[in-house]
């Protein structure tokens, strides 16, 4: 029975990604043992236990016995076609079972090719769902670590702000922006420090027209909302 759940879990990755990308409501995958299976989404509270991340070959064998397979999930093929990647749920299941890192999957999804337009790619939701599946403690921190290896803090801040304006990536961008601000807080960066991180001290008289100013004011509110900073 658990083998069947493994297939459902990986299907949930794509349902979660499609939900964010298309604005449609993600269908609930029914289970006769709801306490054992939790669907994957970009919500950090929904994490799949390692014991359900079974190999694709075992899941396929059980599917054949039960007449149940990935192709039999209603709408799955249509959902996966909405993404740019050609990677299948079975491949994601295999990577999760091998505990491949979010950084590895980031490259496999070719998200490193998108540059500053990263959040225009709907596959960002597939990556976020995968990170939630394999990183239990703080998937956003794992994702941010991957991004910081490729972008500076000021560039990331601008990308997150732009991503929040894109319907398909709003949720992921918002969570990553919050994580970035949490990291600034943890590093004891006061608003004046972040002002410099965002290079606002270099813009001169055009500061009021600079889009980074709104990011800085957001951090001020974030900083001041913490009881220890009041």
TrEMBL record:
<keyword id="KW-0843">Virulence</keyword>
<dbReference type="InterPro" id="IPR054463">
    <property type="entry name" value="PexRD54_WY"/>
</dbReference>
<protein>
    <recommendedName>
        <fullName>RxLR effector protein</fullName>
    </recommendedName>
</protein>
<feature type="domain" description="RxLR effector PexRD54 WY">
    <location>
        <begin position="180"/>
        <end position="219"/>
    </location>
</feature>
<dbReference type="InterPro" id="IPR031825">
    <property type="entry name" value="RXLR"/>
</dbReference>
<keyword id="KW-0964">Secreted</keyword>
<dbReference type="GO" id="GO:0043657">
    <property type="term" value="C:host cell"/>
</dbReference>
<keyword id="KW-0732">Signal</keyword>
<comment type="function">
    <text>Effector that suppresses plant defense responses during pathogen infection.</text>
</comment>
<dbReference type="GO" id="GO:0005576">
    <property type="term" value="C:extracellular region"/>
</dbReference>
<comment type="similarity">
    <text>Belongs to the RxLR effector family.</text>
</comment>
<dbReference type="Pfam" id="PF22748">
    <property type="entry name" value="PexRD54_WY"/>
</dbReference>
<feature type="signal peptide">
    <location>
        <begin position="1"/>
        <end position="20"/>
    </location>
</feature>
<dbReference type="Pfam" id="PF16810">
    <property type="entry name" value="RXLR"/>
</dbReference>
């Amino acid at each position: 029975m658990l083998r069947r759940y493994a297939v459902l879990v990986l299907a949930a990755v794509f349902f979660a990604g499609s939900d964010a990308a298309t604005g449609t409501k993600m269908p609930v995958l029914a289970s006769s043992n709801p306490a054992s299976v939790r669907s994957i989404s970009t919500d950090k509270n929904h994490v799949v236990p390692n014991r359900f991340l079974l190999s694709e070959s075992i899941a396929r064998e059980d599917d054949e016995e039960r007449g149940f397979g990935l192709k039999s999930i209603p709408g799955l093929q249509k959902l996966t076609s909405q993404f740019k990647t050609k990677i299948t749920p079975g491949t994601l299941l295999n990577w999760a079972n091998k505990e491949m890192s979010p950084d590895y999957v980031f490259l496999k999804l070719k998200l490193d090719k998108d540059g500053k337009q990263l959040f225009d790619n709907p596959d960002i939701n597939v990556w976020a769902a995968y990170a939630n599946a394999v990183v239990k403690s703080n998937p956003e921190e794992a994702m941010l670590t991957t991004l910081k290896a490729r972008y500076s803090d000021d560039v990331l801040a601008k990308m997150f702000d732009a991503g929040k304006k894109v319907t398909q990536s709003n949720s992921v961008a918002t969570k990553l922006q919050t994580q970035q601000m949490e990291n600034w807080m943890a590093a004891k960066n006061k608003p004046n420090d972040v002002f410099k991180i965002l290079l606002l001290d270099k813009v001169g008289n055009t500061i009021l027209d600079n889009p980074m100013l709104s990011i800085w004011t957001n951090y001020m509110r974030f900083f001041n909302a913490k009881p220890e900073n009041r």
